[in-house]
Amino acid sequence: MLKEILSITGKSGIYKLVSQGKNMLIVESLVDGKRIPAYTKDKVVSLGDIAIFTETTEIPLGQVFENIKIKENGAEAPINPKADNEVLCKYMAEILPEYDRERVYPSDIRKLITWYNILVNSKMTDFIEEEKAEAVANS
User: Fold this and answer.
1) Which of 5, 124, 131, 138 could pair with 47 as two cysteines, CB 3.0-4.6 Å apart?
2) Are residues 99 and 55 in the same domain?
3) How many whole angstroms separate alpha carbon 75 and alpha carbon 97?
4) What is the pLDDT of residues 14-49, one digit of tens each?
5) What is the 3-state secondary structure (H, E, C) of the chain?
6) How much of the chain, in percent, has pLDDT values that exceed 90?
C-alpha cells in the first residue's frame, strides 16, 4: 500500500498515485482529495521506499508506522508534530528504541507523525504487506 503513497518535495501532505501520463503523474491529496499533476521535475518519493536509520540497520517506514499503530491501538498519534524536539525524540524512542539519534532529526519525526496521522484519517492502515507480516509473526 505504501508504494502508491507519495511525498512530493515542496508540497505539504502526502498523495495517492491515481494515474500515470507522459512525463507526469496524477496524484490525489490524502488531506483534501484534490487531484494535481506531479511532473518529472518534481522530486517524488514513494513512502514504501523510505526507511528509518537505527543503530544497526534501516527499518522500513511501513514497519515504523505499524509500531505506532500497535502503540496507539490504531488511533492517531497523540503527539503534536509541532511539539518540542525533546518530546518528539522521547516519543520516537518509545516506538523505535534503537533509532539512530544522530541521523534521525526532529524534522524527520515531525514528518513521520504527520504522515501517520494523515494515513489513519484516510483509513489506510495496512502499513506492511501480508507476506512480510506473516513472516514477522512466524519468527
Assistant:
1) 5
2) yes
3) 20
4) 999 999 988 899 999 999 999 999 998 899 999 999
5) CHHHEEEECCCCCCEEEEEEECCEEEEEECCCCCEEEEECCCCEEEHHHCEEEECCCEEEHHHHHHHHHHHCCCCCCCCCCCCCHHHHHHHHHHHCCCECCCCCCHHHHHHHHHHHHHHHHCCCCCCCCHHHHHHHHHC
6) 78
What's the whole-number average pLDDT of the chain?
Answer: 90
Q: What is the CATH number of the domain that holds 15?
A: 2.30.30.730
Tell me what pLDDT residue 127 has: 87
Domain span holding position 41: 2-47
- Say whether pLDDT at 138 is over 60: no
